[in-house]
Design brief:
Strand content: 15-25%
Helix content: 55-70%
Shape: elongated
Number of strands: 12
Radius of gyration: 30 Å
Number of helices: 12
Distance between the termini: 37 Å
Structural class: alpha+beta
């Protein structure tokens, strides 16, 4: 370690404390820039964690839907339905533990938010949601026909109670159960027997996606390829591929968020740059005195850079705290305005590291020119400066 560093740091802190108002205002500028950046990135970070958690909780290895869909099927994509018998045939594959056919639709005009209904065989419900528990009423049973089990968040936002009747494309379904909260996306979904939803939607024995659990998950890619070879109109996506696709999309979102926040980061750089440049112009005689008593040009350069970095580090730390508070505000808005609880902005350790790293970069870049200018001052001219 440089033996002069303790002296440099002590002198830098002393210089900054002598100009408290300017130091505080500059630090505030960096704080706001980092807080905005961390808060914005916390949203994509939270979505990334949510996607990974939700996909993992499903406990399946392959998603199957009709070719032509570029992502996981959206509710109501009935034009992409395919015969249910495909799923039954896939269930007979050597590496298949079980295959769950599913039909999703969306119902509007219920007096509340859009109603997402997923139809699956009642006997497969606990395979699909092994952690599901009924807070009120019961789960689906094989004897049910026009029955609905409703997620807790959906029940709350739509004011659904046991025994309530819901019109689904002209057919009335009765709420027989309300699920305990799982803290996930499925809290906002209703579930119906597959055959009943097929009849109400006029799909016959067709589904629009399926979930496959394998005996040997390590052979997921081979099984997916076998499904696509056997059924030319189907797409089979492994869990790893689904997560990779989601992460690539979220990577684009992060890049967009970072480009938006770059405006505030540029302002932060300019704040520190202007402060250090003014500081150097005001301390010409002081710098000349330091040089006269033996301080090297490198010491002067080092001193100005340390001052710049000190402002940025303090601003970065406060900015990470501000980013956390901003993420909490985002979460409150999401819950209050949309009733969504499963997507939460998250300030992770890696995001804090990014925030502090950006702060260091801001301080380093902003301090280089003022430090170079201070180090190049002529001793005689500096001492004669008024």
């Amino acid at each position: 370690m440089n033996p002069r560093m303790p002296g440099v740091l002590s002198l830098a802190l002393s210089n900054l404390s002598r100009r408290r108002v300017r130091t505080i205002l500059t630090t505030l500028g960096v704080t706001l820039a980092i807080a905005f950046t961390v808060g914005l990135l916390s949203l994509s970070e939270g979505v990334s964690l949510t996607v990974e958690r939700e996909v993992t909780k499903l406990g399946v290895d392959i998603f199957v839907w009709k070719k032509g869909m570029e992502t996981v099927p959206l509710p109501g994509m009935m034009t992409y339905a395919f015969p249910e018998e495909y799923v039954h045939e896939i269930s007979s594959f050597e590496n298949t533990q079980f295959a769950i056919p599913a039909l999703e639709t969306i119902v509007l005009g219920t007096g509340g938010p859009p109603l997402i209904i997923e139809g699956i065989p009642p006997s497969s419900f606990l395979k699909f949601k092994p952690y599901a528990r009924a807070e009120e009423g019961r789960l689906l049973s094989d004897d049910d026909h026009h029955a609905l089990v409703v997620g807790s968040a959906l029940a709350e936002t739509s004011n659904m109670t046991l025994g309530a009747s819901v019109n689904v494309m002209g057919t009335n379904f009765t709420v027989v159960g309300i699920l305990s909260s799982g803290g996930d996306i499925f809290d906002s979904v209703a579930y119906a027997p597959l055959s009943a939803l097929q009849g109400a939607s006029g799909q016959g024995e067709r589904v629009n996606w399926a979930m496959i659990k394998l005996t040997d998950p390590s052979a997921a890619k081979e099984t997916a390829a076998l499904i696509e070879t056997r059924f030319g109109d189907l797409t089979a996506v492994t869990m790893d591929d689904a997560l990779a696709f989601s992460n690539s999309m979220l990577g684009i979102a992060r890049a967009i968020h970072l480009s938006i926040s770059s405006v505030s980061l540029l302002i932060g750089v300019l704040f520190v740059f202007a402060t250090m440049l003014i500081s150097v112009s005001e301390r010409v005689r002081e710098i000349g005195t330091l040089r006269a008593i033996g301080a090297s040009r490198y010491f002067i350069f080092e001193l100005i850079v340390v001052e710049s970095l000190t402002i940025s580090i303090i601003g970065g730390a406060l900015g990470c705290l501000g980013g956390y508070l901003l993420s909490e505000a985002i979460n409150w808005i999401i819950v209050e305005s949309m009733g969504v609880t499963f997507v939460q902005a998250a300030v992770t350790y890696s995001l804090v590291a990014i925030g502090l790293g950006i702060a260091l970069l801001v301080g380093g870049l902003a301090g280089l020119y003022p430090a170079w200018k201070a180090a190049k001052l002529d001793i005689v001219e500096a001492l004669r400066y008024e």
